[in-house]
Specification:
Rossmann fold, homodimer, alpha/beta, Hypothetical Protein Tm841, Chain: A,domain 3, six-stranded mixed sheet
């Protein structure tokens, strides 16, 4: 053992973790290890559009934590911070298709986009109707280390919840894809990191930050953001995240938003709520009505300390779908 | 700013965080800041026993995250890692008493026990029927830096859920206290830490661990445990936590348990599920039936990396109460 983590063989972390996830949540999911994917226990569900998401591991509870009633039908975990290959994506797609078609929710990283596309082509060749929605809610940078265009970050959680509810109530593939697109189009996110994280098989931090440095605009793999700054009070940090979000998608006074303060994995909740308080204050100054909120570690970068803020401009249908019952390992209410 | 955290004034962290919590969860709770306590939005509830818990902050979501339908009626947060004074405990007790009495759920730390006792005496003088249950599920050490007897750790979450359900269904104060005692008597926990944590107003780690050291039997404030060891694979670490738990409260083959793998705040979920997998394997070897499980960061020590394992020996009533609907910020299902 050379890396200080609760793991066995670094090469088997994802397999063992997904196996443990399957044991802990056997009421919600079943787990296949070859090729690896996590499927809702009662899939495929007759007459229901299937929803599949996936991506590199290390962002838990994304995506497996969102498999269940009212959200995803399957999740495909790649190696840590590495896109899954087309093979398990195809297997997951087949496992959840009931003949009503399958939506792929894909974060905008080059590898994810390519591999989901290949899997979608193969599924189509098998007669499965597939649509894909690419999530690109991160306003921090135009292009990044792993992306052409904007990265897909915390907005993904909101898309999965809302599209999941649309599928659960029996909407068609086109309708589910359309609402997913609309959520993505109305979501804006930006993050920051106080510390890096260590990928198990790498054994050392993916980047370094001095004791007095914060990275603004970080991605969920520690890829660089906009700038490095010195230490600042929480309120100032929140302002730095919210300003580009509100600049990119302005709000009229009285418009409604969902405010999502997300922890990067290693940040205590006590800090996330300090940030929430300031964000609520700023949005109130702008006349934005926060009608829904989410606070916690929902899309992470292993043990990275940091946070992101996501603002989703809500319409009536989104609110209704947000409030719909959901029953997954990481998000559940109202059933 | 000298400490790398998402905070403003270190002395105002708890106030600002609790204020943010109140804004984010206004549907579930109301927040009083002077003296500080978090109360279920619809308290006091006629005919229902009130349940109050509390303790030092820094263990979130414990306790405020568990205020709501089917769990706590109020939470009293002290300063970080510092017991709340009797004053807010008394205020919370009064706020939730409907005339049916109030249960105090108290983790066994000297300050908490004394201050809850004082508040209970003051409440009794005001004519409120109070019973107290002291949680002491930690098998690691007999006495510790802050405790005479065993410490109260992750078992507290299970007591709060199960006693909360008993109160919600209308049980009497004695019945609710009795089931809380029974859960405590049947819960055993032990934890470990890979890293220390930094208390905001202290600004430096409460202890140090070398790059190749793990502390076994750690408390939730970083107080010392049983021993320091070198790095080991996850499976071996799990075995080290489970052995004293099973030695302290042996199981007959076929007995049922709730397996709770808890993160200390900074440990990624991917690692917690690796640990869960091994724990399930060991319990299966012992013929113990895991009929319920909980995995995640439910009682933490700020950003500490580490975990604890709790095993609760279940009876039929506990299972029924565990499964009952709950609607709080941090734990919710089935309503």
């Amino acid at each position: 053992m050379s890396v200080k983590k609760i793991i066995n063989d670094p090469k088997r972390v994802v397999d063992e973790s997904v196996a443990g996830f399957g044991l802990a949540h056997a009421d919600l999911v079943r787990v296949e290890l070859d090729p690896i994917h996590v499927v809702r226990a009662d899939a495929p569900i007759a007459g229901k559009v299937g929803i599949v998401s996936g991506g590199g591991s290390g962002h838990e509870p994304l995506h497996a934590g969102y498999v269940g009633f009212g959200m995803l039908d399957a999740a495909v975990p790649g190696a840590v911070f590495t896109s899954p290959t087309p093979d398990p994506i195809l297997a997951a797609t087949k496992a959840v298709d009931s003949g009503s078609g399958v939506l792929h929710i894909v974060k905008n990283y080059t590898g994810d986009v390519l591999n989901f596309e290949t899997a979608a082509d193969l599924a189509a060749a098998d007669g499965i109707d597939v649509r894909s929605v690419i999530i690109n809610d991160d306003v921090a940078v135009k292009d990044s280390l792993y992306t052409a265009g904007r990265r897909g970050v915390a907005g993904t959680v909101l898309v999965e919840k809302i599209a999941g509810a649309a599928a659960e109530r029996g909407n068609s593939l086109d309708e589910v894809a359309d609402v997913a697109e609309r959520v993505n189009a109305n979501a804006r996110s930006m993050g920051l990191a106080l510390t890096p994280c260590v990928v198990p098989h790498a054994g050392e931090p993916s980047f370094t930050l001095a004791e007095d440095e914060i990275e603004i605009g970080i991605g969920i793999h520690g890829e660089p953001g906009r700038e490095r700054i010195g230490l600042e009070p929480a309120d100032r940090l929140v302002d730095r995240l919210l300003a580009p979000i509100l600049e990119d998608l302005p709000y009229e006074r009285g418009e409604r938003a969902l405010l999502f303060v997300n922890g990067m994995g290693g940040t205590p909740q006590v800090e996330l709520y300090v940030a929430y308080r300031r964000a609520a204050e700023v949005l109130e100054e702008h006349g934005i009505e926060i009608t829904r909120s989410l606070v916690g570690n929902y899309i992470t970068a292993l043990e990275m300390q940091g946070m992101s803020i996501t603002l989703l401009k809500l319409d009536d249908e989104m609110v209704e779908l947000w409030d719909a019952p959901v029953q997954t390992a990481a998000l559940r209410w109202g059933r």
